[in-house]
TrEMBL record:
It comes from Lucifera butyrica. Keywords: ATP-binding, Kinase, Membrane, Nucleotide-binding, Phosphoprotein, Transferase, Transmembrane, Transmembrane helix, Two-component regulatory system. This is histidine kinase. InterPro entries: HATPase_C_sf, HATPase_dom, His_kinase_dom, HisK_dim/P_dom, HisK_dim/P_sf, PAC, PAS, PAS-assoc_C. It catalyses: ATP + protein L-histidine = ADP + protein N-phospho-L-histidine. SMART domains: HATPase_c, HisKA, PAC.
Amino acid sequence: MSFYELSIIATLAATFAVVCVYFFLFSLYRQTYIGLWAVFWLVHFISQIFYRTPLHQIPTPVLAGIQFTLVMNYLLLVFATSKFLKRKMYKGWYYWTFGLILAADISFLLNAPFILEVFPSIVFVAYVNFWHGWMFIRNFESKGWGKTIVGISFFGIGLHALDMPFLMSVSWFVPWGFLISGLLRFIISIGTLMLFVEKNFRDLAMKEKQYRLLAENAADTIYLYRLGAAHSFEYASPSITKLTGYTPEDYYQSPELFFSLVHPSDAFLLDSLVSNPVAVSAGPLIMRFIRRDHALIWVEQTTVPILDESGACTGFEGIIRDISVRKELEQDVSRLDRLNTVGQMAANVAHEIRNPLTTVQGYLQFFLKKPDFNGYREHFTLLISELERANLIIKEYLSLCKNKARDLKVCQLNKIIQELYPLIKADANASSKDVRYLPEALPDIHLDEKEIRQLILNLVRNGLEAMEHGGIITLRTYEQDGDVYLTIQDQGKGIPPHIMENLGKPFLTTKENGTGLGLAVVYRIASDHQAKVQVDSGPQGTTFRIVFKAK
């Protein structure tokens, strides 16, 4: 076997190795551009089998077919690499390819010299290789050696393509030309493998960094627990310190520490998780932890089992969330639900009590008119006043317990106050006090007129009762930041701090004869209107500020 034949076999072997590398990469990544690269090298390999004869000795029709296949194959290579670099393929490539094929056909028809027949195609092939070398070195986002090796190899193939018309007639160089071409192609395959290995490492490092950032900055605690001869924590996110008071390093050194934090009554839940992670992981586990500072917290734990190839569980990943606030809210809702039931029962009882009280009051008023009971007139009068006081308490209590639908209509707050103002003025004058009303222009808002009247009367009467003779109640309305404000300011002595902390709770009062239900009704009405109640109190008086949303 001659050196020429050996060089051809070596070139074919190198090209076949390149084809195998690219089909292997395609089987791994399933990317379109890798498949197109593989097709390019496969066509290149097949075409080499059919023109083992030197090009200048090949018949013209066969040479024309080879040139057409060569140009279209390299156009496919440009298309694939453009997809790989995420660049749109320039339309000039198509025009140039069409021009080259047309020029080659004309030169073949005119029986032009061989150099003129192949030179346009050779220039095209060289330019495509130069373009690839430049694109891989300058435009590919990688800091490894892979892109450099691929780029330089493409430059080498481009230069080798340009020297072919001049050296193919040199018989001693032709075998070396085949070997150089095969070697450069093989180096391209090695460089491409390096390129994708570097890309994988870079992508893995980026993903690991992203996942680590997510895990280490998550509010929930993420951990990985390994089962086996010696159970251990493989990972615990830093948030476990905030959750339990112990650092991740504490758990790495002593895995049993985690189990010691579980409340004794809930220890069986964690034991069942460790003994059978697959079954327990079907739903979240809710348990109590005792923190390092001995505080008790509620946590919710979700786990995912880790299985090996045989299906055996080798550990589990878990996410722990502090649900103490949620538990408190659930308890508050449950308590409020019970209180609501008790309130409804109490309202029914109060309603039933009022009926016999009305009967007793009626008979006392009847006896009061009888001459036979003149000696008991003072006693009857006292009893009637106490019954009226009891009826007033029951009336206010029932008003607090009402749960009727609100009749909200578009109203003008100033109009409601103006209609109510004569009554308020009369009440103030009767107790040697005064009321001032300072209205400003307001937008219309949705209100229940009867409820708002009750709110204003309760606040004004509270203010009047809190002031000495000569005191002044000031009502003011205005708009600010899109909200409607109603302020009622008195000149009393202020509300004590211990009362301010519990303002609005039923039966809380500083008055000797007060029921403690007036402000509770105010807060309920404000809540039904989605309004806020703001209170400022001091030695010079108290200001109640009701803030209604205009929209």
